[in-house]
Design goal:
Order of helices and strands: HEEEEHEH
Distance between the termini: 36 Å
Number of helices: 3
CATH class: Alpha Beta
Strand content: 15-25%
Strand order of the largest sheet: 3-4-5
Shape: globular
CATH architecture: 2-Layer Sandwich
Structural class: alpha+beta
Number of strands: 5
Number of domains: 1
Oligomer: single chain
CATH superfamily: Fe-S cluster assembly (FSCA)
């Protein structure tokens, strides 16, 4: 059940698009951890491509909102972290291809 819930959460996260680059936050590699317990509590550690991103609060709020709508999720905690700093190697293979990174 936990794995099934995690998969549904990831599908929601793939729908959150960075408007500057047109790629999902998930494919950009911005999620360091997504922990789900048996009670449906979700703890997410995520980062941004830049510390001073003007969309910081919007992204955190959108992640919290979308994940909280997933059936089986009881609560969502989103923590924004910048250590380790994000780098392009964290992107999915699809995102790397789009940016011409091999």
């Amino acid at each position: 059940m936990k794995e099934e819930l995690l998969n549904r959460i990831i599908e929601e996260l793939k729908g959150i698009i960075d408007p500057e680059v047109g790629i999902s936050l998930y494919d950009l590699g911005l999620f360091y951890s997504i922990d789900v317990d048996e009670e449906g509590r979700v703890d997410i550690k995520m980062t941004l491509t830049a510390v001073g991103c003007p969309l910081q609060q919007r992204f955190v709020d959108e992640v919290r909102e979308k994940v909280s709508r997933v059936e089986g999720v009881k609560s969502v905690n989103v923590e924004l972290v910048f250590d380790p700093p994000w780098n392009p190697s964290m992107m999915s293979e699809e995102a790397k291809k789009r940016f011409g990174i091999t």
